[in-house]
Known about the structure:
binds guanosine-5'-monophosphate, six-stranded mixed beta sheet, 12 helices, five-stranded parallel beta sheet, binds manganese (II) ion, inorganic pyrophosphatase (n-terminal core)
Amino acid sequence: MVRAPRIDAGPTEAEWAAAVAAVRDLPDAGRVLLICHVNPDGDALGSMLGFALGLRALGVRELQATFPGPPEVPEPFRGLPGLDLVVPAERAYPDPDLVICFDAASESRLGDLFDRLGRAEHALVLDHHASNTRFGTVNLVDPFAAATSVVAEQLLTRLGGALDASVAECFYVALATDTGSFRFDATTPAVHEMAARLLATGIRPGEISRRIFDTRPYGAVRLHADVLTRTRFEPESAAGLGLVWTYATLDDLARYGQRPYVLEPLIDSIRCTAEADVSCLVKQTGEAEWAVSLRSKGGVDVSRVAIALGGGGHRLAAGFTGRGSATDVVDAVRAQLPSALLGIEDQG
Ligand code: 5GP
Ligand code: MN
């Protein structure tokens, strides 16, 4: 059984102090490169852009935000404040003074941009994945934080930064994304307190949610229907807890003229299956390459499955890059499930 090292406590005071010092000690005109994970989601972009805007308000002038892969920001996020700071990966400072990474559990999530960490004096890692590999010089990893933006807000506060409506909108998108719009167990009193601080800046949650979660092109609606039609339910998998899965190909995207990110909400459409603990969405990204999303309702630790297959994530939400055909990928997942079952004592 693959047991990954897991982080079981938040940052220490010494780590917070080291992160604050790394920002405060920037030389005049020091270049700060902010990087979030490949195929950025709401928490990756929101925590990075909110923190970038906070740094700009603190007087940091040489700032870039970036992520690996095509420099395309998914349509739902194109209204986010701070996008003027985003540059394509190939234009990112080759030799930044400070690198700050957001929501990336491992180096592999940063693609070729990982080389910037070795060239900078300090590399801060802000994250909330228990599977984080602590690849920075200072690691602010809080596995109890509902989103990376929780860590980002704390660091900004410790730096003396303020929440204005632009910073707040970014952090709100991040928080709402990773709590499933305040539905998951990660939605603690502290999460609602942070949401209250963000809303107090005057941002409009209804308008933001509609834009981020509830808007998609008609072609995407039709595409979703096709993908859901081929959903399979396997009651015997995961030692009888049940597995539900489906897949989407590049042909599916091409047929409706859609971009890959329109597939992201589909995992929510299959994970509601009452009879299955585990859900799996397999999204083609190349000839024989697939981005895989895994979810569990508590019977299985899907981060163990993902880590065993080269990825990572959280206990109830994880992912990895799969190879071969879609059925090869599902076969690999199915084979890992028995060794990732959670005992009653692990659940909660
Ligand atoms: P999603 O299914 O929403 O893309 O990802 C669920 C969780 O798994 C997120 O916390 C995400 O960061 C993590 N995750 C998804 N894909 C990968 C991957 O390929 N590698 C790693 N390390 N984590 C992943
Ligand atoms: Mn996150």
